Hints:
With 118 residues, this protein is an all-beta fold.
Amino acid sequence: xxxxxxxGGGLVQAGDSLRLSCAASGRTDMGWFxxxxxxxxxxxxxxxxxGMTYYADSVKGRFTISRDNAKNTVYLQMNSLKPEDTAVYYxxxxxxxxxxxxxxxxxxxxxTQVTVSS
Length: 118
């Protein structure tokens, strides 16, 4: 099973930027999800090994997902952060099917907290 190690969360102010990283132990399609207190885990972005990308409407134009295949690492560059982006962010790997569906990912990272103050 693919192992994932995340890094890069923190506390920032509205309008600031953060970059999350997720290192995988193998070659795989990957995604980012987030979960705010009291809410379900929701899709944020995903990237295929081919480089094809997918985004939630709420982050389009502000977040960019990218990958370095030589390092098996995926990045989530988050710009113009808003308080409503506050959540624990999880990377996930090896989806079998739609990248939007959290239930079809086979591996998950430990999560990293992102807090955006107003």
